[in-house]
Amino acid sequence: MRKGQGAFEYIMTYGWAILIIIIVGIILYNAGVFGQSTESHQGFIKVRPADFSFGVNNASVNGTSTIVWDNVAGQNLKNMNITYDGDQNGVFETQGLTGTIGTGNRRTDSVFISGLSCQDGEAAVVDVKVSYTTETKITKTETGTIRGTCEE
């Protein structure tokens, strides 16, 4: 048997398995299974958090944190009201964004949080409730969770 034929048979036999392992690895990496990022959000449909950070001061979040919200509903959302609740005993002294957010637009919400226990680099988990009225006058409420990284 020639060397070229042996290499070709090896690729044909094991190539598909190697390709499948590579694809599964890429999917798992993008899903965050390997812990490369602690930032994520879930449960949001029409209004989604696009960027968020929680500032750390003396081993707890004390100060203004920002959350950027994207309107992905394909229509203007009116009477929007966003409220926050931390699962780590934090007190949200400013309760969220209110008003209208246009189609495809972004709004930044500044929230003052005190006492959310979180070290630099750790994850802070915040429960969020988003209420809004669509252009067709239907009132909806979405609930979700934001998992962000505490930063100094």
Overview of this structure, please?
By secondary structure, this protein is of the alpha+beta class. The chain has two domains: 1-36; 40-151, Sandwich (Immunoglobulin-like). It is built from one helix and nine strands. Strands 1, 2, 3, 4, 5, 6, 7, 8 and 9 form a nine-stranded mixed β-sheet that branches. Strand 2 and strand 3 form a beta hairpin. It is elongated and about 75 Å long.
Short description:
With 152 residues, this protein is an alpha+beta fold. 18% of the residues lie in helices and 50% in strands.
CATH superfamily annotation of the largest domain: Immunoglobulins
CATH topology assignment of the largest domain: Immunoglobulin-like
Q: In DSSP terms, counting alpha (H) and pi (I) runs of 4 or more, how many helices?
A: 1
Question: Looking at the structure, what is the overall shape?
Answer: elongated
Tell me the structural class.
alpha+beta
| Strand residues, percent | over 45%
Mean pLDDT: 79
**CATH architecture assignment of the largest domain:** Sandwich
Largest sheet: 9 strands, mixed
- Poorly predicted spans: none
| C-alpha termini separation | 64 Å
How many domains is the backbone divided into?
A: 2
